Amino acid sequence: HAKREQAGEPIWFESWMSEEYRESVVLESELREAIARNELQLFYQPQVNLKTKEVDGCEALLRWFHPERGMISPAVFIPIAERSILIEEIGMWVVQESVNQVRRWEGTPLGSMRVSANLSVKELVSGRIVEFLTDVRDRYPGIEQRMELEITESFGVFSDTRVFDALQTLHRLGYRLAIDDFGTGYSSLSYLSRLPIQRLKIDRSFISGDDACSNAPLIETIIRLAHTLKYDVVAEGIEQAEQGESLRKLDCEYGQGFYYSRPIPPDEFEIWYDRYQEESKQSG
Ligand code: C2E
Ligand code: MG
Ligand code: MG
Ligand code: MG
After folding, report:
1. Which residue ranges does the record assign to the EAL domain (predicted)?
2. CB 234 within 8 A of CB 255
3. Does this complex have an ipTM over 0.90?
4. Residue 5 pLDDT > 50, yes or no?
């Protein structure tokens, strides 16, 4: 046995545990403290209307600034948080902080900006986040129109009635819903057509690095499918101007990616937005 004291909680390591697993147990216990220690922050990435070039929405992406390890990617710590109810605490923090940001932007040039927050399917299953979002809507009337919730598609999740019911409730509350990473999770078409959603986000694996446009037929099929179901489409992972241009020609409504901006802190986002507005005015 090796014992590590972390935030007062003893952690026991057994000899059968892999190095990777031990590491994740340490991270998990540090993550428990991260909210209280103000180590979490939301970055924002613009979503650009490919036809009008307007930006009326952005995605909130979580960052963990660890005092020793520096910035840790959500791709690393969200799966760890999902192993326990920690993901619920994080989800509520993300929703509250997104709401705070919407309210901070009220009365500024970004006053009509919609913020899209990511929610884990694990949270929808427990139902606590649905209660929280119900409460948020009561506390801030009209906030639901400024918010969108992104749920990642993964195998079979939408056939889970708890997930389906949670989405239904959020829809009735007036929140906009989007399916994230579409095309990677094998949603059954029959469920897809019944989901109370407004938007599909095409996974960036179809877009980024597709210089030869070899995915174009596939992308076009996804866009047609979305439109048949009356959903609009956001393409993720646009890194070059030409990718945005060909997506626009395929009738894709929105684009998101490093070509427009990386995810950045809110003050930088305001500066980016100002400059973007100036540039679009000049180019007509
Ligand atoms: P996602 O929701 O699909 O977010 C898009 C990811 O693609 C982000 O990675 C973003 O930085 C990255 N990205 C955007 N444009 C480009 C591009 O042009 N090229 C490339 N290569 N990448 C691009 P990030 O921020 O590391 O987030 C990874 C994933 O972590 C997210 O994927 C989402 O599933 C999850 N995540 C992030 N924030 C949250 C959160 O607040 N709650 C939950 N539950 N999950 C979150
Ligand atoms: Mg997302
Ligand atoms: Mg995605
Ligand atoms: Mg994702």
Report:
1. 24-277
2. yes
3. yes
4. no
